[in-house]
Amino acid sequence: MKTNVLRGPLIKSAIILIIFSLLVYLTAARPGGNVWGALGTIIVGIFRTIQFSIGLLIGVAICLAVLVGIFLGAVAIFDRSSASRMYEGLRQIFAGQMQALALAMAGEKKKEPEQPMIEEISTKLKSALDAAVISARRELTTVREELGSRVKALSSRLSAVEESVQSAASGEEMEKVTADVDGISETVARLEKSLGQVQADLAAMTAQLADLAPEKLLGDLPGRLAALEEREIPDAVDLGPLEEQVSSLRAEIVEIRQSVESLVPASLEAPRLPDEEAEKESGKVAAAGEEGENEHRLFSYFDDPADRKKLADLVASTLKKDMTYAQVIDFLVEEMGPELGQIIT
């Protein structure tokens, strides 16, 4: 069973959420920003980050190479052979690290053992342990029988020597027999000591074989495998709240557009006449006054027609941009200047 089955989807979801958050932030933070500009900013940032990382790695590698070269040069001044050995060792270490890295990158993920494999291993271990214990017991029985037979033979020889000693008459024979008895006693003592050592070794071997149980070798591997199989996959992420937030944001944008469109005078919707017909429209001043009544009340605070026209053009330009009401007011104040900006605010 794969333990990292959810790692890939979680990483992809996090990347998508980060990109979406950056797009929203970069689009809303700038008055003239849009989605394509935010995407361009993100791509440029990623490219610069990669460029900086590559440059940093190259710089660190060059610095390390220069430092190692200075050190080896200083060592070579005093002992060339030591410097060459150090260089060779460093080269072998670097080659080994690179080879291990390549193997780690190209290696395949190993599958965890399943329950049938665990049971098979347990059965084999138990059979091997039983066979080893039986063999050790047989060897111990054989050694005990051999030692017992040797002790009996030595005891019989000792008894025969004692009988011969008792029947011997001369002092020389007595000394010889005494020396033989001492040698036999030392031999028996050595055999008993060897028998005790064999028994101690056999007891230690039996204890070691008893400790090599399949449960101790395998540990809690069956329990961990069962826990991994019982683990449930979490449900999919609910996107309902996010869709509701997007719908509310769209409704607010529509309201802001309607409030900004109310600031545009009705006279901007009429087509402009050419310069040759300007004189013909001089007689329509009264009609223009009636149209002024339909203008927004903000235009009544400006006496200069040029200021009114400039304000109307600025308001019309904001309709082409996705700007909030506060951003529109700030934009008009900045373009109209401090004095006229106070009237707007």
Q: Can you describe this structure in just a few lines?
A:
This protein is mainly α.
What do these coordinates show?
This protein has 3 domains: 7-81; 115-230, Helix Hairpins (Orthogonal Bundle); 240-266 and 293-344, no CATH class. The chain is elongated and about 160 Å long. It contains 12 helices and no strands. It is 77% helix and 0% strand. By secondary structure, the protein is mainly α.
CATH topology of the largest domain: Helix Hairpins
Number of distinct beta strands: 0
The oligomeric status of these chains comes to: single chain
Question: How much helical structure, as a percent, in the residues?
Answer: over 70%
Computed over alpha carbons, the radius of gyration is 50 Å
CATH class of the largest domain: Mainly Alpha
Task: State the secondary-structure class.
Answer: mainly alpha
Query: Which descriptor suits the 3D outline?
Result: elongated
Total of helices: 12
Question: How many domains would you count in the coordinates?
Answer: 3
Q: How would a textbook summarize the main sheet?
A: none
The overall pLDDT, averaged over residues, is: 72
Uncertain residue ranges: 108-113, 265-294
Record the SSE blueprint.
Elements: H1 7-29, H2 35-78, H3 80-106, H4 115-167, H5 171-211, H6 214-218, H7 221-230, H8 240-261, H9 285-292, H10 305-318, H11 325-336, H12 338-344
Spell out the key features of this protein.
345 residues; mainly alpha; Helix Hairpins; 12 helices
